Amino acid sequence: MYNLCSVSDRLRIFNGGLRFVPDWKKGISTVEEISEMQDVLFLLRDASISDCKDTWFWGEEAKGTYSVALMKSMIREEEEVRRDFCMRWESWIPIKVNIFVWRTEMDRIPTRMALSRRRLNVGDSSCTLCGIGDEEVMHLFTGCVFSFGVWSIVGQWCNIIPIMAFDFKDLLRIHESVTGGKWAKKVIRGIVMVTCWAIWKSRNDKVFRGTTPKVAEVVAMVKSCSFLWLKNRTKFANIVWKDWVKNPLYML
Ligand SMILES: [Zn+2]
User: What angle is formed at CA 122 by the lines to CA 14 and CA 169, rounded to 5 degrees?
Assistant: First the structure.
């Protein structure tokens, strides 16, 4: 992408509608790039252009002029909106997993349905993991037969049976019913987040590498990654695999 391009270099009118012409040096391929592209298309969905010269414009206010007071009130409003979100940062799991869960709660991961809503041609919009139902956040993580298999085993392991989750926010609240203090809740919350991430990773492995997703492999990844992160990123450096794999709260 060039730094000194004008809006008209990148936004063109085709058949009366606007089209984004990115002109990348290489095509987009990673999940992050697809997500960012999705965000750009989302932001441009209601854009219109004229034949005027490009100018800077502060879009949050009618006059188009920027002020610090306006920015402050915008941040305050944003905080109000954010209160509706259940996602809380979990310190013992890596940033990439936290960010993934945060994006998922906002419905900002490139599921087939999300891509097709952004008018990207995805062909088949059915779930990559089970083939039944449309591939969207709610289905992938709570309604999917494959994910149900994963949650059943993870739930049994964590002694939370049954896992009652009808949408993604329910998953982010599972830890609230866990007894045993702050760390019991933190460990379970982290394991739920790692499970969501592992389900998505397995979905991506099928899409991008053609592998066959297996419930047992997703569960194995949840256990091994959680163990590694818990051992290396918390005070529980002495946890032992053979005990932990039987009960993830054994050390409390
Ligand atoms: Zn499914």
Answer: 115
